[in-house]
Amino acid sequence: MGAHRNLTRSYADELRLFGTPAAKVGLGLLVAVFLLLPTVVHDDFWLSVLIYVGITAVGAIGLNLLTGYCGQISLGHAFFIGSGAYVAAQVGGALELPLPVWLLGAALAGAVLGGLVGPFTLRLRGHYLAIVTLGLVFIGEHLWRNLTPITGGNSGTAVQASPAIGPVDFDGLTLLGESYSRNQGWFWLVWGLVAIVALLAKNLVRTRPGRALQAVRDRDQAAEVIGVRAGRYKIGAFMLSSAIASAAGALFGSYQQFVSPDEWNLLLSIQYIAIVIVGGLGTIFGSVLGAVFVGALPALIDRYSDAIPGVRTSVGGDGFISVFALNQALFGVLIVLFLVLEPRGLAGIWLRVKTYFKTWPFSY
Amino acid sequence: MTAFLQNCFAGLSLGSTYALVALGFVVIYKSTGVINFAQGGLLALGAYLGFTFSNNLAVAFGVAVLLSLVSAAVVGATFERIVLRRMVGQPPFAVIMITIGLLFVLEPLITAIWGFDQKQVNNPWNIRTIEVGSLVLGVRDLWTIGLTALAVAAFFVFFRFSSLGLAMRVTAFDPEAALAQGISARRVYAVSWAIAAALAALAGILMAAGPGGLSPSIGFIALAAFPAMILGGMDSPGGAVLGGLIIGLAEALTRGYQDELFSWAGDNVSVIIPYLLMILILLIRPYGLLGTKEVRRV
């Protein structure tokens, strides 16, 4: 029995990754866009925005696994992102090891750090956990400012992790006699990784551990009663989420080639939470949508700030509000509006639109 | 010894502001079950309103304080009415994020209105000090401690003896039973937010009247008041005050002995002391010093 356009006929249909023909066509289109986009768009600004969005999407998928699927609030995502960047600086830069090593090394370091923090989730729930992870951001910031040999202290450190896998160097890609710019190479690297992480996450959440995570989220005591080891899954979710966050941080550091402690602040954590909420809690696709929407916003505002009335583009310039403040306020407004009006986020809107066409002409 | 007492005094003054903010957290948490991350924004708003009344409108300082408390209370109640009321019954995550969202709207608004530059609030105390034995006590610090004691006492009298205070305690204990007894939960929620905002505003204006002056980063102090609330126990007003004082003392003492004892831990260890202390306490007592132990039944 093949998959049907809008009918689930067996349990296997439910578990399918890309069940419907429409999803397959969509997937094909996405792959085509992924392969062709950098050859069409050469503009460094747009490519760099897309690269940052991709890196953010990786980190957001990690946070969504923890918050959206396992229901654990974490304001400490910035801490793990930061630690990943420093691992990249050490393993990829100082030791000059190749991309797979520093990327996996960062993920491993993130998992270890997450494993250290994870046990708190066993004793603390909801609000208490939110505030402990808030403390993590501040303790982390203190560490980054004072572990000068590793982080360069307040003045920051260069990250010379080279994005090369064997002979393929994404910094200066040469394929079939055609050479590509750094941004083009990075686009393929980052969005390829987004696809891999998204696929892994999707596979995780549709199988046994994913169902266990959701059971823990919905009611951890009840989950425990029916035989889910809630504690183990909570710590596991924490480790996995921080491992992914660390990998995203390593990519971020390596792309930017320089990081300073000012970057891993509460605002970054909140930005990730905003992405997860705006995209849709508990959907992998939503994390990517949210990253595109929220992650691209600051860059666009920065670029077109001259055209937005009331925005001050330089210190002491005219205008009501600075670019930075406008970004912050927008995050706030987005979080509030989405939670109040559309708690399921962009993914929820997408689902509604899809359902409308599926059930047409009986669209209610 | 003098240095120790001097540090303790600084700690009590700092702890008083923490206590005020933490008490605000507890009031809201107890009656509505929400942790209000926007408290820092309300604190900054109160301080800037006090600045405007005192400096731009040239009102007497005491009156300016009262005016800013009232206006902050109105803003707090408005937040509750417009945004938080829609979120009743939603999971804690969503509600926390709503208050963070409010904070992120409030902060840029404040900088947009008042700017980033340092402001000096007209206040009657300036940097005057009095000497007691070998101790040099700032008049502002004495007023901070005194006014905090007064505000806390007023709150406890209100909470314990007034009918509205009783309504708040009942609603905190069992909202449905309270509704069944004809208590207006809406009024209780609005009053809780108003009280919390007023407490935060008082803390803000007392901070701003100090030698540090007033800048947008003043809302930061509310973040350090979180550990105070957690330390004392999230649902215990007495715990909030106790936690505030402990955190304030610990921070001031760390700062005082930074060079002698904590130089190995890097600069400004005092900033993260509240969080370290909080984590330590939580490992031993996961519900804080005076908080109610959560009973989990299957």
Automatic annotation (TrEMBL), chain A:
The keyword Membrane applies. Its main location: membrane. GO terms for molecular function: branched-chain amino acid transmembrane transporter activity. One of its GO terms (cellular component) is plasma membrane. It is a multi-pass membrane protein. The chain crosses the membrane at residues 21-39, 45-66, 78-95, 101-120, 127-144, 185-205, 237-258, 270-300, 320-341. It is found in: Cell membrane. The keyword Oxidoreductase does not apply. Keywords: Cell membrane, Membrane, Transmembrane, Transmembrane helix. This is Branched-chain amino acid transport system permease protein. It comes from Saccharomonospora amisosensis.
From TrEMBL, chain B:
Keywords: Amino-acid transport, Cell membrane, Membrane, Transmembrane, Transmembrane helix, Transport. CDD domains: TM_PBP1_LivH_like (cd06582). The chain crosses the membrane at residues 12-29, 57-79, 91-116, 142-167, 188-208, 269-290. It is a multi-pass membrane protein. Its main location: membrane. Signal peptide: none annotated. GO terms for cellular component: plasma membrane. It is found in: Cell membrane. GO terms for biological process: amino acid transport. One of its GO terms (molecular function) is transmembrane transporter activity. Belongs to the binding-protein-dependent transport system permease family. LivHM subfamily. This is Branched-chain amino acid transport system permease protein. It comes from Saccharomonospora amisosensis.
